[in-house]
Amino acid sequence: MPIITLPYDDLEKLTGTDKDTIIKRVPMIGADIERIEDESIDIEFFPDRPDLYSVEGVSRALRGFLDIETGFREYEVKPYTVEITKDENIDSVRPVFGCAIVRGVKFTSSAIKTLMDLQESLHWGLGRDRKKVSIGVHDLSKVQPPFRYIAADPEFSFIPLDFTEPMTMREILEKHPKGTRFAHILDGFDMYPLILDANDNVLSFPPIINGTLTMVTEDTTDLLVDVTGLSNEVYTALNIVTTALAERGGEIEYVKVVNADGTESIPLDLSPRLKVLDREEIDGLIGMELPADEIINQLGRMGFGAKELEDGRIEVQIPRYRADILDNSDIIEDIAVGYGFDKIPAVFPMNATVGKSHMLSDISTDMREIMTGLGYLQVMPFTLTSDRVHFDWMCREKTDDVTYVMHPISEDQTMVRTTILPNLIEILSMNQHRELPQRIFEAGDVVINGKNGLHLAAVSISPQANFTEVRELVDALMRERLVEYEVVESEDPAFMEGRRADILVNGKKIGVMGEVFPQVIVNFGLGQPVVGFEIDLLD
């Protein structure tokens, strides 16, 4: 689940209350406080609430929950003054496109960082690592409308973000860190997406990298937000980003999109979605009867608009940035959150049972205690992954012991993992904006030859990471487990030759450790040495 860093200065200013109140009440809206620092707080939110991936979104939610500003939040959107045309060839590459302008934003360094963090969190939460959704934010003063969204020749060149010399789009995919990280998204295409201004200046090469020309700075006031992708989540991401900027005082403005066939559209829609709730449905799910005015009040505290209809049902206005509201039960859950779960009467179950922890749970608990004691942070990545991440990026040969998903919902979740290390290294790649060293672990499930297994894996990234570090870690782990082990030279291609070792217990291989192979580090878009180990806890 994403962990969002929220500076106190921004939180207090945008929420309208003090940090002590915020720290006390924020867990009540469905969040876990990860850590409290002197200048900021780190909070973990559920993946289904991408509108809370920024200080602006959290402040908006808290203003309602704390009765500072309740009800449906309306955003005024001004008529368009800018248009963008879509090339007919782009529909076969990256067809779904949304954009808007936000003017009059006052940026600070922390506000820019918050915006960048929001982008990356949405890329992960909504975008399936940019495959389905990618977002660009540009300094509008540096470019000249009208704009064009086209499918361009891979030999087209421009200066990408964080570089000073022009590169062709093909070179960016081969040499730029972001290019190598996300090049697989454009595999098989002869033309690449590109957003240009009237003078052929590059705004963005989605979903890879922006041009350096439109980089947002503290002097930026007017922004163009572009979102491209393969699904309607593009419009959800656009709504979240534009309304977050509006919370900082920005004025939203439509952008007209002219399609290749001459039709026109306005991709931004902030009008509320409407749903109607039956009282029986509300009372049945919550487990108690609430008066209509109480239901309407709690909906207002959770950011909805609501009114009672003549037949007693409740009509609800749902904000467009609430991607988690799929059916009535999601709204009713928010009514219960607003009312307070502690106020709902407890009822004894009809049946009483006595339980005990499972052996695997006991093993996992012991491993978590040992690893946290050794200074590592626990993570919980998905158990579904892909051949690309699991084998190709790890420089490992594909094996026959893999269980594949019959009907995967995306190319990133086609198989059940057989090892944990690829997931951990992928998490490191998503957290490059965090300070080093980073040390994480997981004790979790794997599936090998159709059978469940339990593995423990850990990775450490820092400029000083080396084989001695991981050997000392495994020594400490095995000492705490009271297990004697030995090591022999390994041939695992995911690790460097001469700096890798298989872990043996009673002559049987149970795992591997070492310094991660440089090409693996490059494949995941990392720039620092990585060490790690993985062992089978059931052998």
TrEMBL record:
Binding sites annotated in the UniProt record for Mg(2+): D324, D330, E333, D334
GO biological process: phenylalanyl-tRNA aminoacylation
Cross-referenced NCBIfam families: pheT_arch (TIGR00471)
Origin organism lineage: Archaea, Methanobacteriati, Methanobacteriota, Stenosarchaea group, Methanomicrobia
Main localisation: cytoplasm
Gene3D superfamilies given in the database record: 3.30.56.10, Bira Bifunctional Protein, Domain 2 (3.30.930.10), Phenylalanyl-trna Synthetase, Chain B, domain 3 (3.50.40.10)
PROSITE patterns in alphabetical order: B5
Coiled coil (residue ranges): none
The encoding gene: pheT
Top-level lineage group: Archaea
Assembly and binders: Tetramer of two alpha and two beta subunits.
The name this protein goes by in its record: Phenylalanine--tRNA ligase beta subunit
Cellular location(s): Cytoplasm
Pfam family, one: B5
MF GO annotations: ATP binding; magnesium ion binding; phenylalanine-tRNA ligase activity; RNA binding
GO cellular component terms, semicolon-separated: phenylalanine-tRNA ligase complex
SUPFAM superfamilies given in the database record: Class II aaRS and biotin synthetases (SSF55681), Putative DNA-binding domain (SSF46955)
Family under the similarity heading: Belongs to the phenylalanyl-tRNA synthetase beta subunit family. Type 2 subfamily.
Alphabetized InterPro entries for the sequence: aa-tRNA-synth_II/BPL/LPL, B3/B4_tRNA-bd, DNA-bd_dom_put_sf, Phe-tRNA-ligase_IIc_bsu, Phe-tRNA-synth_IIc_bsu_arc_euk, Phe-tRNA_synthase-like_B3/B4, Phe_tRNA_ligase_beta2_arc, PheRS_beta_core
